[in-house]
Fold this protein.
Amino acid sequence: MTSHSAGIGLQIAIESSWYCVITMNSSFCLCRLGGPGAPFYFCSIPLHYHLFMDTARHYIFLGPPGSGKGTQAKELANILGIPHVSTGEIFRDNIARGTELGKKVDELLKAGRLVSDDVTNAVVSNRLKQTDAARGVILDGFPRSLPQAEYLATLSVDVLVVLIELPDDEAVQRISGRRTCSQCGAIYHIEYKPASKSGVCDTCGGELKQRNDETEEVIRGRLSIYHKQTEPLIKFYTSSGQLIRVNGLPPIYEVTAQMWALLKL
Ligand code: AP5
């Protein structure tokens, strides 16, 4: 580790890829990930956290469809500077590109049924082997069955589960109003988080669309699968002390704040 003075504070270069600038208030830092030329972002995570980022930890987002997993997972990934890995997004991307995997899972996603554990575990295994996953990732929508959780446990990596709880009727309401950017995947809601210009992504200008698993009938089916196949994971991770519970009902920023406090970020 080397350090030298910078215009607004002390700049520390860690392993030549992490840069932290300590501001006047030492509980905040201005950070950049990716070395010289990478953009800075202002971060409320204490500096000591960054200094220990070498320890890999996967954060798992668990909760019913529509509970806000994707919304909060993207936020946490941005702040921690680790990848957001959504199995749903990986499957939808493969469907859009017409890959073999996409052809295999297309009908299952449309019907709101789960992809088989073998296929899903293989997809996640490949993703976690990529170099950007070495410091940990945000797993959004994986695991969602006991065999998937048991597979993840064989990887011997520290995991922390964020369970977002939401009643079914509210989940249906949320998904019915969701709009997703077809280019960058940003998530909006026509009422709770509207784009500045209707149908256009604020971030990249991409077209906002509804997913094809968003009819009420399919959403109810996905909720029923969640209760049967995914809810047992709550007990699995509670018994090992790896789970925190977040109330998903308040507005987005309040859910984020609860999560921050519980994760002690
Ligand atoms: P996936 O893409 O993972 O869908 P999901 O788990 O059903 O969850 P959603 O993406 O629908 O909801 P979310 O919780 O992310 O909520 P969001 O943040 O968007 O999976 C899709 C399919 O892929 C599955 O059905 C399955 O077929 C397959 N699959 C994926 N993983 C698999 C696995 N591991 N094994 C087998 N198959 C798998 O928020 C919803 C809306 O609410 C948004 O509009 C948002 O703006 C809004 N909102 C969020 N938070 C708030 C808030 N606090 N207040 C008000 N509005 C809010």
